[in-house]
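The data layer described in this paper is built around a simple, fixed record for each protein. Because each token names a local backbone shape, the row as a whole describes the fold. We quote a single record here, exactly as it is kept in our systems:

***
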Amino acid sequence: MLQLIDIDPRDYAPHRLHSQQRDWAETNCYVDIWIELLHALGHEPLAVMPFTLAIDFEDDQWTFFKPPLGDLFDLYGLEVQELALWRPLTEHIEEQLRHGKPVLVELDSWHLPDTEGSAYGLAHVKSTVAVNAFDRDARRMGYFHGQGYYELEGADFDGVFYLGEDDPSRLPPYVEIVKRHPAPASDDRELMAISLDLLRRQLRLVPQANPFDRFAERFEADLPQLMDGDLELFHAYSFATFRQFGACYELAANYLGWLESLGETRFHEARDDLAAISSLSKVYQFQLARAMSRRKPLDLSPLRQMSAHWSSALQRIDERLRG
């Protein structure tokens, strides 16, 4: 078994960002694996979260938020590069792990046992995992995904890599490798200083107009279609909207809380505003589901509350950084 980080899925302790007590125990597949990969490598994932403040409503969905690759290098010395596949994926993974590089790869959740109850054996859903351990001969793989670290083997190994199948129409997955350089920061204070610089840079990318105002208009226009839809449509719509910005702004609130834990106390009011968006979005998601199932009208006022919290949070952060 090739293994980069000496961990066992049976006793792995996830980062606190994946606590079940949170509004959103999962965010999206790419952010979730970075939270756990950074954690397992001994880094603090919260330091890379300034990017969560710059998301926007992208006209038919909210930003599918991801940590900027440059920020990962500036904070942790981690360089991410795309891997070109010119031979079987299993051979590439073996080669890269042998040289100390985690492999981030898009796989089919149908064969990922940690998705049992949602996709495992039920639905073909693309999801990114970070491979940490691999044994091609024994058909075993250890990987970060979702809220933790897991292992698959046997038929799932064969299925996830399409072993024994020959389908020339199947496109290869998108794959990245992580090259590790010396970390720039030697302690939490240095890490926070780099992170605050990234925060100032990310604030330049914040939408000029309140994204919740535009989303409210689009949501109201989408409601008739949603009310005629089924549970599948609800889940797809909610993932692209309420879950995206809800989970993202909860991470933003957690980031400001991390700064406060290190003595940076200027952002506690903005943190509360962002946490309010997270909790409101989670509740409103369930209200939408009930309204769709009962074909009942839906109160739109929570969207106005989220809009007010967003304006307050971003204004306060900008003022505190300028002050």
